[in-house]
Amino acid sequence: MAGLSFHGGIHPFEGKELSKDRPIKDYLPKGDLVYPLSQHIGAPAKPIVEKGDAVKAGQKIAEAGGFVSSPIYASVSGTVKAIEPRRVITGDNVMSIVIENDGKYEEVEYPEAKPVEVLLKEEIIDMIKEAGVVGMGGAGFPTHVKLSPKEPDKIDYVIANCSECEPYLTSDYRKMIEQPEKLVEGLSIILRLFDNARGILAVEDNKPDCIKILKKLTEGNDKITVATLKTKYPQGSERHLIYACTGRAINSSMLPADAGCVVNNVDTIIAVYNAVKERRPLIKRIVTVTGDCIKTPQNFCVRVGTNYHELIEEAGGFIKEPEKIVSGGPMMGFAIFDLDVPCTKTSSALLCLSKDEVSAAKETACINCGRCVEVCPGRVVPSRLADFAQHKNKEAFEKANGMECCECGCCSYICPAKRQLTQSIKSMRRMILADRKKK
Amino acid sequence: MKDMMEVSSNPHVRSRVTTSSIMFAVVIALLPATGYGIFRFGWYAALLIVVTVGTAVLTEHLFCLISKKPTTVGDGSAIVTGLLLALNLPPHLPIWIAIFGAVFAILVVKLLFGGLGQNFMNPALGARCFLVISFARYMTDFTTDAITGPTPLALLKEGSPVNVFDMVIGRTGGTIGETSVIAIILGACFLIFLGVIDLKIPGTFLVSFSLFVVIFGRSGLVPYLTGSSSSFFDLQYLCGQLSGGGLMLGAFFMATDYTTRPITKKGQYLYGVLLGILTGIFRIFGPGAEGVSYAIIIGNLLVPLIEKITMPKAFGKGGERA
User: Fold this and answer.
1) What CA–CA distance (Å, rounded) separates A142 from A71?
2) What is the ipTM for the molecules in this complex?
3) Which residues of chain B make contact with A369, given a CB cutoff of 8 A?
């Protein structure tokens, strides 16, 4: 059966074989832990501890700085060493809480969980909010906001984004293999918030084992179905996932709720499960450490705040000298220049490549081949948008639907002239968005 | 770990296809037609091809040297242009005309308009049309040792019968590379297989041209209805029109030229239909038997307009919130 799909997209080298067959390994950090106060979209969290305070794992150290914000919890026991700006993966210096790890990993006692059936909707959302759950696929949008649309009755689909379309990443895959019950259970919890909604577990067809497991688990469950998606990037893009699953298309100015949908990724849904069923806050996540430079590519269950250096060491270190290190997947991740940065709630992978294909490629003239148009899931004309961007022609850029770009990177990937299309378009979008904010 | 890491904006991976690999594929795809041309028309055709390609490459290289820019010969587009031009030349053309054509194609049509990707007209076709107008006597002389007499298209124009089988194989008169339909299709299949071209333009081009011929051509519907023809459909005439002249070479290798065709999907369909109709008009109502080159060149000129009216609708646009 051909899987569900959308127009455009690419088939880059998958690289998932490197790490997909090793079980998730728990990693206990050794050094200091760093918690940037902005690990999510929205207002930064406000610290509620001071230098010198003793903390335990699972203790709240910063509270939400507004409605669109999220609290942060300590992931180890130790003492607060400093509250100061620290470098994060984007290269910025962000105000962070630094905790000196005492190596005991003492945890606080979590409140007793009540059966989900007796919980009110508000209570569930409150638990998710309190647990600091954010979209862990990369965007970091606070989950409680996502789960509180204006008209919850109009939501008819809750989609679990199990596509994991980014090459090299296998963290969602491992979770689906190792903890599929938690995923299904987590989705059921979210479904309790929306009376008219059905759940869809949307999996790409390159993970037949996951599809099999999930189908078996949801057998007889009349609220949750498994949808098979065609394997291609960017299948996991929220707008395109909604289209593939429901046939509804939304533009960049609309929210999934406008199409009656709520989309969450695997790790987020499992975090919801932990928050509601076990009353545990979000202090760990799965990170894929992979790439041809890594000795033993694999997935780690990492405590938020762990230094990237430690993860590389735990994976056996480098066997080749890396030329490029990417935090996240190769299509949308950030290239980092320093490993001395912490893992946050949204760090999905650490990819170490011995060859940087970008700097190796020389940019030449556009030959108008149209490949970018063919692969663009946003159905715009990237080559023209990039021209407008380079000429700083905002008007033409907006008229040509430049703001509809989802920055997925397909155009740059496919371009035979190796133009930095995504980069140009992305910068222009940032400029226009900044202009709009000023007004 | 290195002190200096490579940092760049996403994405961090790139496909293997490059401009020069595409050009290389096109050259490979043109080899069957080139080989057949040399086989059929002999060593002089080979010489013409070598000289035309050589001149094209040299012109681009010298231009880059003089304008103090890094040479762009490496992208291979000059080779493609030179080869396409050579395949569009009569097999006994004087060498100096071929050189003239190659310089015109590269220098005037391509480089003076900004080089690769900036020219609005297919360089090889621009040069061919330039040569046809300037040196009509040489450019329309298809007499060879093997065959004397008019090309199959000229025969069709007169209403004489043609041997379609010979035309498909290529045992007819014509330019070096256009005679063998089989050789051209073989190369086109290779490009389609590699994904370098697709059937959007050639398909609509050939279909719309066929329809035009069926309606307006000799023994077509219109002549039948107006009483100037006794039959309303002539398969031999249609097949002859499809296999004759530069249609196949034009549809698969010239109309699909990236730079000078619309970039939008809908635009490509429209462009193909337009080329089919224009070719039909030129071949059936025009004074000459040929029409493909002029159809494509006029199509090239209309590309900006076609693109303007066929800009794709962005994903999700239309279902807007206020």
Assistant:
1) 10
2) 0.89
3) 22, 258
